[in-house]
Amino acid sequence: MNTFTKVLLILFLSFAASAEEKWHWRGPNAFDITLHVLSEGLIVADCLQTFDIKNHKTYLERNPLLGEHPGDGRIIALCTSSIIVTTALWYITPQEMRWLVDGGIIYFELPVVINNRSQWGLKFILPF
Predict the structure, then answer these.
(1) pLDDT of res. 88
(2) Residue by residue, what is the 3-state secondary structure of 100-121?
């Protein structure tokens, strides 16, 4: 676990410990929605790049849930469920902590998408 992940975990736990005292759930505001669309867009970008792996027989998918050479159905199922789960978690999280959900997604997905594009040349393609 790297330092940034530890800091996020400590922040999350400290916020959660005091949540019952001062926080109540509120609907998302414009900033929350914008940040969430950005983070979910990175998940979609990663998924679209995963479809391109099939065009390169020597490339292997690193996600153990997908396997080394995933099929379209598996990619679509995992990407869709990832978006549903992360959006549900984001929505039920108190407004003061929502940025942590999106921050975590961006923290993990942005380097993956950039590396896929710059190092491997993977494109954003649709399976059909």
Answers:
(1) 94
(2) HHHHHHHHHHHHHHHHHHHCCC
Compute the distance between CA of residue 76 and CA of residue 128 in angstroms, rounded to an integer: 12
Model confidence band, residue 1 (pLDDT cutoffs 50, 70, 90): low
Return the residue matching tokens 């059909």: 128
Which of 89, 88, 91, 67 lies closest to 78 in space, CA to CA? 67
- Mean pLDDT value across the chain: 84
User: What is the b/e burial string over 98-128, where b = at least 16 CB atoms within 10 angstroms of the residue's CB?
Assistant: bbbbbbbbbeebeebbeebeeeeebeeeeee
Helix (H) or strand (E) holding 37: helix 30-52
CA–CA dist 30, 93 (Å, integer) = 16
Distance between CA atoms of residues 128 and 126, nearest Å: 6
31-40 pLDDT, tens digit each = 999 999 999 9
